[in-house]
Write a structure and sequence with these properties.
Elements: H1 2-10, H2 13-34, H3 42-57, H4 75-95, H5 107-128, H6 135-144, H7 155-160, H8 170-190
Helix pairs in contact: 2-3, 3-5, 3-6, 4-5, 4-8, 5-8
């Protein structure tokens, strides 16, 4: 299993996991302390998921681009597994809140937002690199949590604000699924763009 340990360390997974766990724990603790509602606000849920996904986005490339393309490994399968593991991990961390009086619910909304935002992050990583993969999920989330965006019958608003639409909203689900599939395929098949040698040197 040493190869797995090396892989996780090269992708900075321990740091990303610690960061995501801390962010989720802080949001949960604040909600538990300052609100009486048993279900955490949808906008708060979306922001927390976005921050956890951005942390996961830092793990989408390693220190050596050439190593990530070696023929000795089945990289498309490994990249796909990496994304699926990230979805499972973030989902599990948020689901732990269900044992308390402040919960990240409903589960369908949580899972929809995780898969959609992580797909968007993976798509950004495939197009612009892992270092810039945070821009798209951050931008879309900040727009979606604005006061003038909310549950709506308008199709355009349901797509633009898919993160804050109720669970079961067809347009929001389709939008999230499209982002998830596009990101999974793009990142799994392409990986991240090659970076200049100056960015991948031993001192980096």
């Amino acid at each position: 299993m040493r190869w797995l340990q090396l892989y996780l360390r090269s992708r900075r997974v321990p740091l990303a996991l610690t960061t995501a766990t801390a962010l989720i724990a802080v949001a949960w603790a604040l909600s538990l302390a300052y609100t009486d509602a048993t279900t955490i606000n949808t906008r708060t849920v979306s922001l927390v998921i976005m921050l956890a996904v951005v942390a996961a986005g830092t793990t989408l490339s390693g220190a050596d681009d050439a190593l990530d393309r070696t023929a000795a490994a089945n990289w498309p399968v490994r990249r796909a597994g990496h994304l699926l593991l990230a979805v499972a991990t973030i989902t599990a961390l948020l689901t732990l809140s269900t044992v308390s009086d402040a919960r990240f619910e409903p589960f369908a909304l949580v899972l929809r937002n995780i898969t959609g935002l992580l797909g968007l992050t993976a798509l950004g990583a495939a197009l612009f690199g892992a270092a810039l993969s945070w821009i798209s999920p951050l931008t879309w989330t900040l727009v979606a949590v604005m006061p003038f965006v909310g549950p709506s019958r308008d199709l355009r608003m349901q797509v633009a604000g898919w993160l804050v639409q109720p669970a079961g909203t067809t347009a929001a689900t389709v939008c999230a699924a499209t982002l998830a599939v596009a990101g999974l395929l793009a990142y799994s098949l392409r990986g991240c763009p090659l970076r200049p040698a100056s960015e991948t040197g031993p001192d980096r």
